[in-house]
Design goal:
144 residues; alpha+beta; four-stranded mixed sheet; two-stranded antiparallel ribbon
């Protein structure tokens, strides 16, 4: 459980996310829309911080929930208070996309092999729909 930083100016805009009355429902709908279903989490939105409480079935699911919540325009931090109920697994590394980055460049930097870009892509599905659809400020998962 930890605090994760994101580029507040990057990411998709989620209408209604910063309205106090039903912000959690807007975030859950966003998480579902990126392909992560309806997880057993209870998000709280306060200013530019999202707190995620609840359970995830795996370390991978937990990390993807953090990224889906943090890669939103206006979000600066995600406070991860999610408990993993499945088997213990090594946490992935996170990397922030820089201007002019692409998945082969990220793979070259992370793994020493640009041809491993598919590994980066697969580690971030279903949030990434295409290997060319990344943007500066986006945070991605890197698995070993």
């Amino acid at each position: 459980m930890s605090l994760h930083s994101f580029d507040k100016e990057a990411g998709e805009k989620v209408p209604g996310l910063f309205l106090p009355s039903d912000a959690h429902e807007h975030l859950l709908k966003h998480i579902e829309s990126v392909g992560l279903g309806r997880p057993d989490v209870f998000p709280e939105v306060q200013d530019d911080k999202i707190t995620l409480k609840g359970k995830a079935g795996s370390q991978e699911e937990k990390e993807k929930l953090i990224l889906a919540s943090g890669n939103i325009n206006g979000v600066a931090t995600v406070d991860d208070q999610i408990t993993v109920t499945g088997p213990a697994a090594q946490a992935a590394r996170f990397v922030t996309v820089k201007a002019d980055d692409n998945l082969p460049a990220i793979a070259e930097s992370a793994y020493g092999d640009a041809n491993k870009f598919r590994k980066v892509f697969e580690a971030n599905r279903p949030m990434l729909s295409h290997p060319d659809k990344i943007y500066p400020g986006q945070v991605l998962r890197l698995t070993d």
